[in-house]
Amino acid sequence: MARAGRLLLLLLCLLPVAPVLTIKKYQQVSHKSIGEPCEMHSECQSDCCVTNSLSPQKFCTAQTAFQQCLSWKKPNGYICKGHLECQSKCCAISDYGVNMYCKAKTIFLQCLPWRKPNWDYCDYHRECRSKCCIRLNELSPSRCVPQSGILLQCLPW
């Protein structure tokens, strides 16, 4: 009787271990190498599953030296909706259209939108490179004009 009790106790102790070993084996088999398609970080050996192109498909990629898992960012010239989509972290209007594009920051790390050149038609100062939008006479539409005078003010020509 004591022998049967010990045997039963031994079997009960082994039961929870078997599923754990099976799960560990399964997890090791399911780890994917860099470059393989994935859906979640846990699927990858690097624990890093991100998009690496315009395609929504995710792939296993290496982490950075600081153990970060960074998604692919759009290079300059690609259409964007926000700064975080771009490698340069700068998404701005870059021509007469309404689309915004990834573009390089200035040497002072500013993200400046495209502005209209001098003599172009305008409605607001902020539309012009010169930041100066005025009517040249009472009947003409407003145009971007260079700032003038000693203090570079927005004066009519």
From TrEMBL:
Q: Does the keyword Zinc apply?
A: no
Q: Does the keyword Signal apply?
A: yes
Reading the lineage from the top rank, the first entry is Eukaryota
Q: Which PANTHER family match?
A: COLIPASE, LEUCINE-RICH COLIPASE-LIKE PROTEIN 1
Record GO biological process: digestion; lipid catabolic process
What name does UniProt use for this protein?
A: Leucine rich colipase like 1
Q: Which GO terms describe its cellular component?
A: extracellular region
Q: Which residues form the signal peptide?
A: 1-22
Q: Name one GO molecular function term.
A: enzyme activator activity
Mind listing the UniProt keywords for this protein, alphabetically?
Answer: Signal
Q: Which Pfam families match?
A: Colipase-like
Show the InterPro entries listed in the entry. Colipase
